[in-house]
Structures are given as C-alpha cells and as structure tokens.
Amino acid sequence: MKRVLIVDDEVALVKSMKNFFQFKGVDALIAVTGEEALDILEKEKDVALVITDVIMPGISGIELLKRIKEKDPAIHVIVMTGMLSIENTVSSLQNGASDYLLKPFSSLDYVWEVVRNYL
Ligand SMILES: [Mg+2]
After folding, report:
1. Residue 93 falls within a domain, yes or no?
2. Do the domain assignments include residue 2?
3. What is the domain extent for residue 26?
4. What is the CA(54)–ligand 1 centre distance, in A?
C-alpha cells in the first residue's frame, strides 16, 4: 500500500486523519506547513499521495501543489478546500490536483471514499 502525506495547519485534523488512515491500513505521514511537507518529500521517496489544506501560514496549498508537480508529476495531490471557496478548488484542479475534499468533512468515511481512488 502506498504512503500518504497529510498537510494541514490544524494539528487535531491531521492527527485524526492519520489515525483514521492507519486504521484503514494506510501508512500516513503528517506536516503542519507546506515547508515541512516539502522537507518530508525530500527525505521520504515513497509518498504516492499528498492531501493538503489550501489556506495555511507560509506557502499555500496551491503553491505546495505546484512545487510537488514540478518535482514529480506522478505524485497525486488532493486539496482540502472550504465549501465556499470554489476559486481555490478550480485553481487546484487547473494546477494538477487529482481531486478535492470539501471542508468541514461530513465524516471521515467521506474522506475515504475520495482518497481510496488514489491508493
Ligand atoms: Mg488551514
């Protein structure tokens, strides 16, 4: 099974997503900034999927997406966007995101239904 990197400035959210993925048998790494995510991707060569928040301090999720795609277009990126920020969703898809998750999540099962397609 492929490894996943979850990126969000909301620590409680990345922790609960990590626990949920591990319960599903998926190895998940976490980062709370885009910069930290890029450091992890430098070190860990087997991350196949990045799930990232868009609005974070430092580099945004869209900037992170662009940098990941420049480095390795084979890595899938799923963005987590607010219900009301359709611009961020569209911009992410135009920049190579594979899919999106709308926040706040109705449940983690909703997350799984989207994410499982990229594992
Ligand atoms: Mg955020």
Report:
1. no
2. yes
3. 1-45
4. 6
Q: Are 61 and 7 in contact (CB under 8 A)?
A: yes
Instruction: Compute, in angstroms, the gap from residue 24 CA to the centroid of ligand 1.
Output: 24
Residue 109 CA to ligand 1 center (angstroms) comes to 21
Mean pLDDT along residues 98-116: 95
Q: Considering the domain boundaries, does residue 30 fall inside one?
A: yes
pLDDT (average), residues 7-31: 97
**How many structural domains does the chain have?**
1
Using the mean position of ligand 1's atoms as its centre, give its distance from the Cα of residue 81 in Å: 9
pLDDT tens-place string over residues 40-69 = 999 998 999 999 999 999 999 999 999 999
Tokens of residue 28, six digits: 């998940």
Centre of ligand 1 to C-alpha 7, Å, is: 9
* CATH number of the domain that residue 6 is part of: 3.40.970
Asked if pLDDT for residue 96 goes beyond 90, the answer is: yes
Q: Which residues contact 73 (CB under 8 A, 6 or more apart)?
A: 96
Please report, as a single letter, which amino acid is at residue 44: E
Flag whether 40 is in a domain: yes
Cα separation of 68 and 22, whole Å? Answer: 24
pTM of the complete model: 0.95
